[in-house]
Design brief:
Distance between the termini: 42 Å
Order of helices and strands: HEHEE
Number of domains: 1
Structural class: alpha+beta
Number of strands: 3
Strand content: 25-35%
CATH topology: Rossmann fold
Strand order of the largest sheet: 1-2-3
Length: 93
């Protein structure tokens, strides 16, 4: 059985803050890709910490993926699936 781990907003905020300087030192991102199902809020927090004085905000693009499915067992909880399904994807054309 998969064990659920609960993470608070403060946990996410702290991890984003701790990661920002290392990201800026090793990589100069121009784009953040947020994955739906939990990635939008960390992406937005991280963008705040990555913004440089007098610099522009880093763009955030969103994609949607699904890896969970209801197996029809009568259980209300979804279970991990076997295939990642693209619900929303990036198109830079």
């Amino acid at each position: 059985m998969v064990q659920k781990v609960y993470v608070t907003y403060n946990d996410v905020h702290k991890l984003c803050k701790e990661s920002a300087q290392k990201i800026l030192d090793e990589f100069k991102p121009e784009l953040i890709i947020a994955i739906g199902g939990g990635g939008y809020i960390p992406a937005r927090i991280l963008r705040s910490f990555l913004k440089q004085p007098n610099g522009k905000n880093i763009s955030i693009q969103a994609i949607g993926l699904s890896l969970y499915e209801n197996l029809g067992t009568g259980e209300p909880e979804e279970t991990p699936g076997t295939e990642v399904v693209r619900l929303q994807w990036l198109d830079f054309r």
